[in-house]
Amino acid sequence: MISRIILQNFKRYQNVDFTCNSEVNIFVGENGAGKSTLLYGIGLVLSGSHSQIERSSLSSIINQEAILEFMGTRDINQLPEVFIEIYFDELSTEISSNFNIEGKHNSQKIKAFGLSLKIIPNQDYIAEITSVLNDSKWTVFPFEFYRVEFLTFSGKTYSSYNKPYKFLHSMINTSLIDTQQEIQKRIHEVYLDNISAENRAKVNHQYRINSFNFLKTLRKDELLKENASEFQLHFDESENSFRNSVSAVKNGVDIKNLGQGEKVLLGVENAYSHLK
Fold it and tell me: Residue ranges of the domains in the chain?
């Protein structure tokens, strides 16, 4: 679906142009070659998320060589601009029928279907930038005076709240998968599959009764000796207490004790499940 990717001054890439295959694309390279950076850039454009940019900070996004070159000249006309452009295969009817992303608002000035991320100097602050550059004591890059734009090739802005496309996508970085969270998701799925909706309230209610009776038995048999503290042991009384206390097993092994590789695969499966 993605036919071409162009990046300028994005992280380690100063100026690159990737042509993609029509089916599967595999990026191979040594550590530090930029594989994850490329995927991260694609994810940013598709997300339309300003918060992702804020979490990363512009100092880590703008190419360092471009920054150093500018710092050497301090020419306002050479302030580095960042952009990532994703061109879509117009042979796909899912793309060709979406006129919201068609236009010539791209670096190649060609009519195409696509999306872009631009990080450029904010023209509203040109006076401030000029003042800063004229200061002989100035030694820092003016990240504060940049703006972030997500644009379709038709020239319209978009965000994570009003994406101009309907197709589904999923970005998976196995190094960032929270395995504990993914395990809980899978346990929850097993719970939903094994207990029908009409029985869940009954099961939880019976679980709470049994839990309270169990505590009473412990106290009666003096197996539980509570001190004079203002805090005492107590079972969760919420309507989800049973669901939150159970686990799941795979071939007799508690899901929480699976190997790290299997836990990561759970995360990958969970990420793709919402696309079905």
Answer: 2-171, 179-273
Phi-psi region of 229 (alpha: psi -120 to 50; beta: other; left: phi over 0): beta
Separation between Cα atoms, residue 123 and residue 75, nearest integer Å: 15
Closest CA to 16 of 7, 25, 29: 7
Question: What distance in Å separates the CA atoms of residue 104 and residue 116, rounded to the nearest whole number?
Answer: 12
The pair phi, psi for residue 118, each rounded to 5°, is -125, 135
Residue 194 tokens, joined: 């094994």
Tell me, what's the pLDDT at 134? 84
Interacting residues of 262 by C-beta distance below 8 A, sequence separation 6+: none
Residue 96's closest CA among 153, 46, 47? Answer: 153
What average pLDDT does the segment 248-267 reach?
82
For residues 6 and 85, the answer to whether their CB atoms sit within 8 Å is yes
* CA-wise closest residue to 246 among 181, 184, 179, 178: 184
Specify the residue for token string 């998320």: 49
DSSP assignment of 220-260, as one string?
Answer: HTTSS---S-S-------STTHHHHH---EETTEEGGGS-H
Q: Which class for 42: exposed (0-12), middle (13-18), buried (19 or more C-beta within 10 A)?
A: buried
pTM of the model: 0.68
**Nearest-5° Cα angle at 122, 120 to 124:** 165
The whole-number average pLDDT for the span 140-156 is 93
Do the beta carbons of residue 27 and residue 36 sit within 8 Å? no
151-203 pLDDT, tens digit each: 999 999 999 888 887 777 777 666 666 678 888 888 998 999 999 999 999 99
pLDDT of residue 34: 86
